[in-house]
Amino acid sequence: MKIFAEDVEPTKEEILQQRMSYYLRYNDYIVPWYYIAAIDQYERNIQDVRNDIPKREGIVSIQFSDEFWSGALNPQVNETSPIAINHFGGLGLDGNGDGLANIKDDADVLFSMVSYLSKYGLSKDDYKLALWDYYKNETVINQIVTIAILFEKFGTIDLDAHTFPIELGYQYSYGGTWGANRGWGGRRIHEGTDIFADNSTPVLSASYGVVEVIGWNQFGGWRIGIRDNHNSYHYYAHLARFQEDLKVGDIVEPGQVIGYVGSTGYGKEGTSGKFSPHLHYGIYKFNGKTELAFDPYPFLVKWEKEAKQAKRKKVKYKY
């Protein structure tokens, strides 16, 4: 099935529109579109950061094993006959009515995933059970469920917007502090960027996400952990306090106030003032196996620039 002209590079908007049209095609087939979209997004996320997983070509990123698709005992690993696949207990299906169950066809892949999920039932618990039987990994399940929650809440898969985590208009400074030595609590490296600002400066969510952790730890003091739709965990630490009523499970969006700069941490609950007020901002990426920290500084520079441009544009149009 041709989606775009061969000599024309599709825009991001065109790709998202085509992807969404696939999801909505099965929206009335028992399984809500955001469940399917969440699995597809998760698969795309891990393919972007794993060298041992090939990137699937096409609009959809879901990849099935040959065993799942063709059947464990099928001698033809690239089987496309629905009859033969069914005979050997495979789950690959014909999703576009061309008489073939082609693992390289986006419509067939999505229809097969929808069919698999629908066998478990309609509830969120049924969805989690289906994911468990498929992935056998609780962390994977939690990540996919988070993505589904975000897609359902905002009604779109276009949730790539980010912003700088300190509200513009306040005084702040930061630099590349990734990998610097830290001695308190044992030798370790600094996994993030410190953004220095006055006490009680508003801290913003840099992304769309779901609050996964909120509370105290001895290193980060009052801290918040937010998981987004790209398998990233955003860590905001040393806060003076949280935004009122913010709690685990809340859905946030870029620019939303989540807390305020402080100097908490490095001790028992309530310890404060052992260092200058600042926001410690870190990002951890889950690759399907483990969660690893990476340097957020280049992203902060980019988001700061974009936030300033957006602010200037807003002021320009206001007057």
Automatic annotation (TrEMBL):
Its EC number is 3.4.-.-. Transmembrane segments: none annotated. It is an enzyme of class 3 (hydrolase). Residues 189-287 form the M23ase beta-sheet core domain. It comes from the Bacteria. Keywords: Hydrolase, Signal. GO terms for molecular function: hydrolase activity. The keyword Kinase does not apply. It holds the Pfam family Peptidase_M23. CDD domains: M23_peptidase. PANTHER family: L-ALA--D-GLU ENDOPEPTIDASE, PEPTIDASE-RELATED. This is M23 family metallopeptidase. It comes from Psychrobacillus mangrovi. The lineage of its organism: Bacteria, Bacillati, Bacillota, Bacilli, Bacillales.
